[in-house]
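@channel anyone free to eyeball this complex?
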Amino acid sequence: MAFDYSTVFRPGLPPPAKRWSGFPKYNFVGGHNDGAAVPVQDFIDAAESVLKREGSTLATYSLESGAQGYRPLREFLAGYLNKSTGMQQTADDILLVSGSLQALDLVNDVLLAEGDTVILEEAAYQGAIQRFNRLGVRGMGAPLDDGGIRADGLSNILDDLKKDGVRPKYIYVVPTVQNPTGTVMPEERRLEILKLARDFDVPIFEDDCYADLTFDGERPRAIRALDSDGRVVFCGTFSKTIAPALRVGYLVAEWDMLSRMSAVKRDGGSGALEQMVLGEYCPAHFEDHVSNLRGVLKEKCDVMLETLSAEFGTAAEVSNPAGGIFVWVTLPDNVDTMKLFEVASSEGVAINPGAEWVADPKTGTHKMRLCFGNPTIEEIRDGVTKLAEICHREFGVPERGANIER
Amino acid sequence: MAFDYSTVFRPGLPPPAKRWSGFPKYNFVGGHNDGAAVPVQDFIDAAESVLKREGSTLATYSLESGAQGYRPLREFLAGYLNKSTGMQQTADDILLVSGSLQALDLVNDVLLAEGDTVILEEAAYQGAIQRFNRLGVRGMGAPLDDGGIRADGLSNILDDLKKDGVRPKYIYVVPTVQNPTGTVMPEERRLEILKLARDFDVPIFEDDCYADLTFDGERPRAIRALDSDGRVVFCGTFSKTIAPALRVGYLVAEWDMLSRMSAVKRDGGSGALEQMVLGEYCPAHFEDHVSNLRGVLKEKCDVMLETLSAEFGTAAEVSNPAGGIFVWVTLPDNVDTMKLFEVASSEGVAINPGAEWVADPKTGTHKMRLCFGNPTIEEIRDGVTKLAEICHREFGVPERGANIER
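replying in thread with the prediction:
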C-alpha cells in the first residue's frame, strides 16, 4: 500500500513540480546566457591553479574564509564594485550567496513578516513578486517611466501609506537595466529616490543583477554609492555575467544587516568550488569577458528588435533595452499573453506572460517578456516569427508581418 | 545619520552572526574532514574533462538536466546507492540539493507547520534540532541503545501521541553511524521501526549522511530499501565522503514527495560546477577514495579514543563509534559542558556541548561531542590533553590523567 503523502503535507503547499522534459525549441524565458560565451578554457585553468594551491581547504566548511564566503572572491568584488559602482567597500562588507535568489530570501528573512508592505516597481522581477506572495507580504507597485521608478509616484505611495500608518519594510528596485523594462535610472533620479527613502525612513534593496551588462559599458553610480547613511542593501550576481548554473551572487550591506543575513543563512556556506574558480578567474579575466559578452548580447538584442519590428510591426510596442538579456513587449489589449504563453509553449516557443512580471497582474495581461541571451540569432528570428504567427492565429494580431498580409 | 535596521527587523530574528576570526587551534567541532584526503589532482582532472566536454552548458540554469540536478551525477548515485544500500532507484528518484542541510529544509518545508510534532532520536543532529525549534515544531526524543532507536521506546511514544490525537509528521532517524552516538542500527531493528511506522501510518526521514564511512565498510540495508510502501524519504551527502565545502547532497523519495520538494526548492538549482565535477569524478574514483578515507578516519578515531582513555580515564564514558567522524562523551554529572565549552573555546579548544545535541537539553548538560575528522593526529593528542586539564581545573575531574595525579 503506497503511503499517502497528501495526509502529511503542510497547509498551503505549492503544486508539485513537473518532470523536466528538456528546453523548448525557442527558449525566450529564464536568465539563461549565451553558451558560446562561457569562458570554458579559462575556467579549466582557474580550477587547476586554485585547486593545486588550496584544494585541500575544501575539507572545511567555508574553506578558510568563514561564512561570508571565499575571501579572494570578496576581495575581487570589493575592488570591482568600488570601481564600477562608486561604492567604498571592503571584503568585510560582502556576503557571498547562492545566486541572487538567495539574496532575496535572506533580505526577506531578516525584514519581512506576514502582513508587511514593500514597494516595488510596477513591472518587476517575477522571483521577487512570487516571494512576496508566498510570504503574505503586500507589494505596492510604483509607476515607471524611461528613468525607472518615478519620484512623484513613489512619493504618493509613501504619503498614502504614511496616512494609513504603514511604514513599508523596504523599496525593492532594479535601477540599472530594470527587469523587465530594460531602462537605466539616471543618477539624478537615484538621488530623488534616495531622498524620499530618507524622508520616510525606509531602506532600499538595490538589485543590480544586470548592471554589468549595459550595452555601452556605462552605468550611473549605484544608489548604495550615493547613500551616506547605510540604508541601501545591494545585491549582484555572476549568473548573468558568467553563467547562471554557477549560483554565485553577493550581498553588500552594513554589518548590522549583513550579520543578520549571515545568521539566517543556515546552509553551511554556498558552494565553494564555484567561489574558488571565480575568485581565481575574475581578477585576470572578468572585465574583458564582460566587455565581450556585452557585444554578443547587443547583437542578439538587435536581431530580437528587428524581428519583432518586422513580424509584429505597429501591433507591438517594444522596449529598447539599455542592456541585459530581455525585451518587454506590449501587445494590443485583446491579446491575452497567458493564453499566448500556453499555446506557444505547446508549439515549442517559451515566453514570459506579462501578468507574472507586474505588481498588479491585471496590468500585464497583454504584455510579455522575451529573453534573447540563450537562443542563437537564427532561433531568435525563427522563434519570433513563429510567435507572431501563433499570435495572429489566436488573436488576429499582428495583421501583417514581414510585409506579408497574414 | 546611520539607518537603524533594528526598526525594520522582523519579530523573532536570531542574534547576529559574529565576524569569523579563523578556526580554533584544536577544532573538535563541525563536519570538517581530513584536508590531506581531499582528492585534489583527480578533481583537477575531472574539472578539465567535464568542462571541456560540456562547460558551455553552464550558460543555462541547471545545465541540460532540469531542476533535479546534473543527470550523470544522479545516475552514478542511483547505481551506487542500489549497490550499497539495497534500494532500487533510478536517476529520476533523486533530487540533488545544496548539502544535507537543504535536504532537511526541503523535507520540513513540505511537511511541517508550526505546532506539529516529529519524533527524533533522544541524542540527535544539532542542525535538525535547531530547525524544529525555529519552526515551532515539537521534537519528541526516542530512547537509544547500541542499536539506535529502541523499538519499545518508539512504540510508547507513538502510543502516547495517538492517545492525545497527535499524528507525528515524521520520524527522523540517522540509523547508520548515528549522530552523535556513532551506532549502526541492525537490519532487524530497522524492520521493527519500519513496522511501527506502518502501524501508526507515519513516514520516516532517513538521514544517511555518514553511512559510507563505517570503518569496516559494511552497512545494513537502508530503511528505505526495506520499505515497500514508499514511506521513507532518504538523504545523503558528499560532505563527509568528499568535502563539506562542496555543498552537494541528495534526496531519494517517491515522486509524490520529490515533486513537492522540488517545487519549494526556489534557488534556481544547486551549484552546477560542483555537481559536474563530482559526476565526472565519482564513477571512476568514489569507492576507492571512500575506502581510503575510512582508514584515515579509523586511525584518527583510535587516537581520539586512546587519548580520551589516557587523559580522562574512568571519568569519561566514551562511545565506540562504528564509523564517521565523532565520539560522544558522557562526563560526571557535575561537569557542565556548556561552561566547559566556553572556557575551552577561550583557550583554543572547540567542543560541541551536549545540550545542543539532544532532544531534551537537560539530558545533555554533562555530555559533549568531539569530532576527529579534521585535526591532525598530533592535534587530537594535544587538544584532548588540554581539554582534560581545563576540565580538571574547572570541575575537579578527571582526577588523574595519563597516570599523573593532577
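from a first look: The radius of gyration of chain B is 22 Å.
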